Structure prediction request, 89 residues.
Amino acid sequence: MFDVGFWELLVIAVVALLVAGPERLPGLVRDVGRWTAQLRRYVMRAKYEFEQQLRVDEVREFSEQVEQMDKLLDIAPDQHDKTGATKDP
Prediction:
């Protein structure tokens, strides 16, 4: 997604070192790691729920199509024999 190379990471590390200082930098890195992990878990959970909802919608659409086919068969039952194949008129 993001194309971050070595030089970009080096610039970020130098800026973080200058801004936070060497004493607070380890704690800052640890906090950023926790935030990143929480964000990843949130995104994965949202993705999973979205995919589950899509599957539910697909099943619902299939069920509606089967019901429509059943209604069509009820309308014209004389066009089908017991095996389900259409009869020639």
Remarks:
- Helices lie at 6-75.
- The chain has one helix and no strands.
- The radius of gyration is 30 Å.
- The chain has a mean pLDDT of 83.
